[in-house]
Amino acid sequence: MTEKKQATLFLAILPILFLIALLTANVLVFGSDAIGGANQIVLLLSAGVAGLVAWYLGYSYDEINTGIVKSISSAMPAIIILLTIGSLSGTWLLSGIVPAMIYYGIKILNPTIFLFAACVVSAIVSMATGSSWSTIATVGIALIGIGNALQIHEGVVAGAVISGAYFGDKMSPLSDTTNLAPAMAGTDLITHIKYMAFTTGPSIFITLVIFLIWGFTLDTGAAVADSSEVINAIESTFNLNPILFLVPVLVIVLIIKKVPAAPALLIGALLGGVFAVIFQPQIVNQVSGVNNDYLHSSFKAVMNAMAITIKITTGNVMIDELLIGKGMYGMLNTVWLIICAMIFGGVMEACGLLKRIADEIIKFAHSTGSLVASTAVTCLFFNVTASDQYMAIAVPGRMYADTYRKRGLKPEVLSRTLEDSGTVTSVLVPWNTCGATQAGVLGIATVAYAPYCFFCIISPFMTIAFAYLNIKIRRLDNEGENTTS
Q1: What is the DSSP string of 392-413?
Q2: From CA 105, how far away is CA 114, in angstroms rounded?
Q3: Residue 310 forms beta bridges with which residues?
Q4: Does residue 30 lie within any of the structural domains?
Q5: Cα torsion for 465, 467, 470, 474, to the nearest 10°?
Q6: Which residues of the chain have pLDDT under 50?
Q7: What gap in Å lies between CA 378 and CA 393, rounded to an integer?
Q8: Which of 26, 111, 268, 282 has the fewest CB within 10 Å, making it most exposed?
Q9: pLDDT at 297
């Protein structure tokens, strides 16, 4: 076996510098369309640069390829869920579930408090289900539709939905990341959640205040008039039976009962198709283009809704733009992006380049504040380079656990930092599995919603501020929480 060389810091960051340079060029040339293919190619080219570095260090092609396969394998559950969400969004549109959500949402929610309410509703559902992804794929899609009808910038609405969903995900004992973080740090789940509330509470409070104030600045006069047209168009096109809401309620119950997300969402997608056949025969015929055989029409319409793009026309241009389902086909570009990102992350991980950079960061962590800040930066670094929130929690968790213990810090300090930085920043990176997924599900580019995900932006700074100000920092040698760093 060839002896491996130790990577210099320059060699370790070279693929990342290459990635950043080409991604910047993509933004300048393609703008928000960069996710349509240009970013994928850049990730593959960057993986090639990382592969050359790995080869120089003495790694064989088989070793590099094994790292790539392992990295892609870790993303397969996310890819399966993403494709299932595509089918669910299609059948929920065909069945009238999403239009019904939009219809009643417009009638109930005052435009002034809509952003505030969207954040709160998303937080409640996500906390109950333990899944930000499922919340965004169900309630989130409907809230985006309501926001569009109220003429509120879709990026802002997405920011409110994602902020609430990721707050609920962080604080729910059912969440996988909320269980992963304490496991990596060496503490228990309940201690982790209680301790995390000290930083998460102020972060979501500030976020809600921002959205509440923002709502009072909106000009809702034209929106109210246009929303009336949307209500009339939906009412005249769909059979708005309250029974339709049984499907999303069932999906939420299944997830609360710890049914895995993929089968729970698939059940929701199939039931959406059944409800479409029962309650929306006119829509089924419109989508299928078959009028003389309802069995044939139903089969074709449901299959199309699950697989490819469908469009439902009402005669109202504004609402017609909302009634477009993309099916699994609409998620393929996002799947492409995730696979390319995991190839890059796999090469970087396999040859130790990510660890080399992270080890360098630790050297600058001399105080409690700088240690927490270094951990937060490392989590963000792994979200950008490894493109996966689980790696952004697991790898820094393993790396820093001993350092925190040697510094006399209790493990919940580390677990809180991992969640405050690793979980929430994943959705802000366009090529991360989370950022790519939410952009694909909502149909809104990551760069368009990221500036408005206030909770996700505030959380890392909040945990760093607590550490530097020595607020609620628990130590192994002192049960008090306000000892000096």
Answers
A1: HHHHHHHHHHHHHHHTTB-HHH
A2: 9
A3: 325
A4: no
A5: 140
A6: 479-485
A7: 9
A8: 282
A9: 94
Q: List Cα–Cα distances, 367 to 185, 356, 402, in angstroms.
A: 19, 21, 15
Q: Give the Cα separation of 177 and 392 in Å (integer).
A: 10
Q: 174 phi and psi, to 5 degrees?
A: -85, -10
pLDDT tens digits along 170-200: 988 768 788 888 887 888 888 898 999 999 9
Instruction: Tell me the C-alpha to C-alpha distance, in Å, between residue 285 and each of 157, 276, 325.
Output: 33, 11, 16
CA distance 429 to 436: 8
Q: Which amino acid is at 240?
A: L
Token pair 């630790």 in the structure block, residue: 362
Is residue 22, in this structure, part of any structural domain at all?
no
- Residue 324 three-state SS: strand
In a domain, 38, yes or no: no
Burial class for 480, CB neighbours closer than 10 Å (0-12, 13-18, 19+): exposed
Cα 122–chain centre separation: 13
Cα-Cα-Cα-Cα dihedral sign, residues 156, 162, 165, 166: negative
Give the H/E segment covering residue 134: helix 132-135
Q: Under a CB-based contact definition with an 8 Å cutoff, are residues 172 and 126 in contact?
A: yes
The answer to whether position 261 is within a domain reads yes
Q: Is 313 helix (H, G, I), strand (E, B) or coil?
A: coil
Q: CA 427 to CA 345: how far, in whole Å?
A: 17
Q: How many domains does the chain have?
A: 1
- Residue 313 is encoded by which pair of tokens? 């026309």
User: Which whole-number Å values give the CA distances from 166 to 131, 141, 320, in the listed order?
Assistant: 8, 15, 30
Tell me the pLDDT tens digit for each residue of 19-77.
888 878 887 788 667 777 888 898 899 999 999 999 999 999 999 999 999 888 877 88
Domain span at 453: 1-12+45-485
Report yes or no: 207 and 458 within 8 Å, Cβ to Cβ: yes
Encode pLDDT of 156-166 as tens digits.
Answer: 999 999 999 99
